[in-house]
Design a protein that fits this description.
By secondary structure, this protein is an alpha/beta fold. The chain has 13 helices and nine strands. Helix 3 (42-57) crosses helix 5 (136-151).
Length: 325
C-alpha cells in the first residue's frame, strides 16, 4: 500500500464550520417537487450510472478512497481473524508509514487486484441513497457503492439497499443491478449477527446512525461493522453536548472508542461526499469503555427531538423487490 495515497487520510480532527449534511426531509421535498413526469427510462438511468462510475474511476477522490477503504477493511478483517490475545496493544493505529506484516490467513489489499477477503464473508447494507434516477448526487453515491462492492469483492446479492423515496423505476434498476432491495423501513435497526458488515449511509439522518448503534450495542457486534457515512466528529462539533447525549446517546457514548477517516474533499464531488467518513470500532477500545455503559440498552424513541431528519416506519413506502427472499 502506498503511504502517499493515505497521507490525506488522517484521523478526524474537530471541524467547527462544517456544513450540515442534507437530510431526507429536504430530499423528499425535492422529489415531490420534481414529480413523476421527470423520471427517465431504465436504460437511460443505467447508462448514466455507468458514466458516473467511469467518472469516479478516473477521479482523484476514488484513487484516494480505494486505498483508504482497502486499508480500513483489511484492519477490520484482521481483527476478526486474529485469535483472542494476539492483537497488538496498538491495534487501531493507522500504520501509515510501514504496515505490520499480516498473519497467515488474514486478508490484505493487493494493488490492482482488490481485497482478498480470507475466510470471512462480508456483506453490505445501504440506507438513504435517494432518487438516483433524477439526482446527480445520488447517482454518484450509487456509483461509489458499486465500485466499493467490486473492490471489496462483496457479491451484489450480499448488498441490501433501502430508501423510502425509491420509485418503482429505481427499484427495478437496483434489481437489474442484482442488488437486494429491502421491503420495509428498518429505521437503521439491523443487527450484524456476527458477520463483517459495511453500512453505507451517505447523508443519512443522525437518528439512523444512532439506531444502528443501538441495534449492535455490544463490543462483539460493533467490532464487526464499518460505517461509511456522516462524520461522527462533525456531529460532535455541530450538536450541543446536551442534544447529542439526550437525543443520540449511542453516538455520544461510542465516540471515544472509534476510529474515523474522512473522505477527501474534491471540487467535483464537494456536494456528494462532504462530511463523509469511514468509521470502525477496534474491539480493544470498546472493551476499555465502562462496563455499565453496555448495560444501557433502551430503544431510542426521539420524543421531543427537533429536526429528526429520518422517515419513520409506518409511512407508505413504494413496493420493492426482495432478492434475498
Amino acid at each position: 500500500m502506498a503511504a502517499a495515497a493515505l497521507d490525506a487520510w488522517q484521523e478526524a480532527a474537530p471541524r467547527r464550520r462544517r456544513a450540515a449534511a442534507r437530510g431526507p426531509k429536504r430530499r423528499a421535498a425535492a422529489a415531490a417537487a420534481r414529480g413523476p413526469e421527470a423520471e427517465p427510462e431504465a436504460d437511460f438511468v443505467l447508462r448514466r450510472l455507468r458514466e458516473a462510475e467511469q467518472d469516479l474511476l478516473s477521479s482523484d477522490l476514488w484513487s484516494s478512497a480505494r486505498e483508504a477503504i482497502c486499508h480500513c477493511v483489511t484492519k477490520q478483517l484482521r481483527q476478526l481473524e486474529a485469535p483472542v490475545g494476539t492483537l497488538p496493544e496498538a491495534f487501531g493505529s493507522l500504520y501509515l508509514d510501514s504496515p505490520p506484516a499480516e498473519p497467515e490467513g488474514v486478508t490484505g489489499c493487493h494493488p490492482g487486484g482488490g481485497l482478498a477477503r480470507g475466510t470471512h464473508r462480508m456483506q453490505c447494507v445501504c440506507y438513504g441513497l435517494g432518487n438516483f434516477a433524477t439526482c446527480v448526487t445520488a447517482r454518484s453515491q450509487l456509483a461509489f457503492l458499486l465500485l466499493f462492492l467490486e473492490e471489496c469483492q462483496i457479491p451484489r446479492s450480499h448488498c441490501w439497499v433501502y430508501d423510502p423515496l425509491f420509485s418503482q423505476l429505481e427499484t427495478s434498476v437496483l434489481s437489474t443491478l442484482h442488488l437486494a432491495v429491502l421491503r420495509e423501513n428498518e429505521e437503521g435497526k439491523r443487527g450484524v449477527s456476527g458477520e463483517c458488515t459495511v453500512f453505507y449511509m451517505p447523508h443519512c439522518g443522525t437518528a439512523l446512525y444512532n439506531n444502528l448503534l443501538w441495534s449492535n450495542w455490544t463490543p462483539d457486534a460493533l467490532s464487526s461493522m464499518l460505517i461509511i457515512g456522516n462524520s461522527f466528529a462533525g456531529l460532535q462539533d455541530r450538536l450541543p453536548t446536551r442534544v447529542l447525549q439526550e437525543s443520540y446517546p449511542y453516538i455520544a457514548k461510542v465516540l471515544e472508542a472509534l476510529h474515523e477517516l474522512p473522505l477527501p474533499q474534491t471540487p467535483r464531488y464537494s456536494d456528494t461526499f462532504n462530511d463523509t467518513s469511514i468509521h470502525w470500532f477496534p474491539k480493544k477500545r470498546l472493551e476499555r469503555l465502562p462496563r455499565d455503559l453496555w448495560a444501557f440498552r433502551e430503544e431510542p424513541d426521539y420524543q421531543g427531538c427537533e429536526d429528526l431528519e429520518i422517515i419513520r416506519k409506518g409511512t407508505t413506502d413504494p413496493p420493492a423487490v426482495d432478492l434475498n427472499g
